[in-house]
Design a protein that fits this description.
mainly alpha, 3 helices, elongated
């Protein structure tokens, strides 16, 4: 038997071509709104995560505020951070007489205990002067 052939018949009919064009145009038209929708969903999810983090921060700060309402906690923090003492107590601070490794003496303090320390503003001005003057380049 011979195969049936229709000479001159196009592979796609005009209806199929129109249908393909309509589908392609629908895909092109709906692609941008679909992308926007997906981006907005991602942004909403990110904002929800930020909101949860903010709620956690608020809870932590509320708990910290409640701790600061306790007078005993305030006294303990004043003793620890500000080195306060109650009336009748003798506060003291232990200072290590030997500087640690890498520590340098402030400029102008001298080497002996009789040397007088410079005021803070003199030290600041000396550091500004040192920063303004370029350091000599090492010789090759």
């Amino acid at each position: 038997m011979a195969a049936w052939k229709f000479p001159g018949r196009p592979r796609f009919t005009s209806r199929a071509t129109v249908l393909v064009l309509v589908l392609c145009s629908l895909v092109a038209i709906l692609a941008y709104p679909a992308r926007q929708f997906i981006n907005q969903r991602d942004e909403i999810a990110a904002q929800r995560v930020k909101a949860e983090q903010a709620k956690d921060a608020v809870q932590q700060l509320t708990a910290e505020k409640a701790r600061w309402q306790d007078p005993e906690f305030v006294k303990a923090q004043a003793r620890q951070r500000l080195h306060y003492a109650m009336p009748g107590e003798t506060p003291f601070t232990a200072v290590d007489p030997t500087p640690g490794p890498g520590a340098t003496q402030p400029s102008g303090t001298g080497s002996g205990p009789a040397a007088k320390a410079l005021p803070w503003y003199t030290t600041v001005w000396n550091s500004v002067d040192a920063a303004a003057s370029p350091s000599p380049a090492p010789a090759p």
